[in-house]
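<tokenise_the_fold>
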Amino acid sequence: MRYVRNAVHSGVIGISIGMFWLAVEILLTNHPNTVTISGRTFLYWLSVSFLIGVFLYLAGLIFSNDRWSLRKQIIVNFFVCFSAYGLYALATNNFSWSWQLLLEAGINFIIMYTIAYGLYFFSLWREVRQINEKIKKREK
């Protein structure tokens, strides 16, 4: 049950990042006073953002492998996620491959990966800091 709850939580985080991403894309490509979006497009972005969030959570389970170094875990996780995102980018472009598509998908993915795992590692850092503070208080 904990995994389902965490997967849903990650999906909701994915939605928040995806909706922010959609808003930026709309504002950069349209005049702010004339922005319209169809319900179908909005639902597409909503569901894909949720699925990306869930996928990032599942890919994050790579970090539970204690036999690997943190560097190896990050590298494997990055390439697993990048492969999945690359397939997604190809699928949304009718599987027509180009260097420009690869570059755009790579840049978009690196930004999303940095946001997602930056927030993840920041929360871990905060938890470790809180634990260390509690240990210091007990030692006094």
Q: What stands out?
A: The chain is about 80% helix and 0% strand. The longest helix spans residues 99-139. The radius of gyration is 18 Å. The mean pLDDT is 84.
